[in-house]
């Protein structure tokens, strides 16, 4: 098991707002992955903030680097990202995500220019999942899940014992990031990566636990 399974532990809206703020600036070339997407709520909330890109539309809104809690965010963050991919191992939850996405599209919660794809697969299966496209990755995983996914989303070019396929994937990741002129942004909720320094950390309040505040971490992968 990589991700929490209990419904109570679904990603709260406040954490998604912080994650979206951390991912900025998002442009029309970005591709956002949600690993363990569950019912699709992260994808839907992020996609609902997308606005169409135009060549004279300027850059996306700058984030406030001084914020420390989600309650300090005064307005929703909008962006130009139009490609979202969710990965879910459970066929039932993958179907629920697809159903929720269809409903959000039909009710115009998700703009028509946005594309959301759900891949029903084990997140560790790199034969089925092409992570080289990802410029932003959201992870709400248990600590063991982060340890297992880390070599995939955070490839090390000089890792010992790296085979040719792994080197090709790492090279593809580097090419994608060079084209986007930005580093890959990885956001984790609740648990941090072990032995890695985060760029930002913010606590968000959750409705189902009065007085509680849980951490969101941002990592940059160059």
Low-confidence runs: 58-74, 174-180
Beta-strand share of residues: 15-25%
Query: What structural class do you assign from the helix and strand content?
Result: alpha/beta
Helix percentage range: 25-40%
Q: Tell me, what's the shape?
A: globular
Describe what this molecule looks like in 3D:
This protein is of the alpha/beta class. Helix content is 28%, strand content 21%. The chain has helices at residues 13-23, 41-47, 91-106, 143-153, 164-180, and strands at residues 31-35, 83-88, 115-120, 136-139, 184-189, 200-206, 209-221. Helix 3 links the parallel strand 2 and strand 3. Helix 1 crosses helix 2. The radius of gyration is 17 Å and the shape is globular. Mean pLDDT is 83; it is low at 58-74 and 174-180.
Write the layout of secondary structure elements.
Layout: H1 13-23, E1 31-35, H2 41-47, E2 83-88, H3 91-106, E3 115-120, E4 136-139, H4 143-153, H5 164-180, E5 184-189, E6 200-206, E7 209-221
Parallel strand pairs: 1-2, 1-4, 2-3, 4-5
Antiparallel strand pairs: 5-7, 6-7
């Amino acid at each position: 098991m990589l991700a929490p399974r209990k419904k109570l532990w679904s990603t709260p809206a406040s954490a998604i707002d912080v994650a979206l703020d951390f991912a900025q600036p998002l442009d029309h070339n970005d591709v956002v992955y949600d690993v363990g997407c569950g019912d699709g709520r992260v994808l839907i909330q992020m996609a609902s903030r997308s606005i169409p890109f135009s060549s004279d539309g300027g850059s996306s809104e700058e984030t406030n680097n001084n914020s420390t809690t989600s309650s300090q965010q005064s307005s929703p963050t909008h962006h130009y990202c139009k490609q979202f991919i969710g990965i879910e191992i459970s066929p039932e939850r993958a179907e629920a995500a697809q159903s929720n996405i269809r409903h959000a599209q039909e009710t115009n919660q998700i703009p028509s220019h946005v594309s959301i794809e759900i891949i029903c697969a084990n997140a560790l299966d790199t034969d089925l999942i092409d992570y080289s496209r990802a410029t932003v990755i959201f992870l709400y995983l248990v600590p063991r899940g982060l340890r297992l996914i880390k070599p995939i989303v955070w490839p090390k070019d000089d890792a010992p014992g790296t085979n040719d396929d792994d080197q090709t994937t790492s090279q593809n990741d580097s090419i994608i990031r060079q084209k986007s002129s930005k580093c890959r942004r990885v956001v984790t909720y609740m648990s941090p990566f072990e032995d890695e320094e985060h760029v930002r950390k913010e606590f968000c309040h959750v409705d189902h636990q009065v007085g509680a505040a849980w951490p969101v971490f941002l990592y940059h992968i160059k």
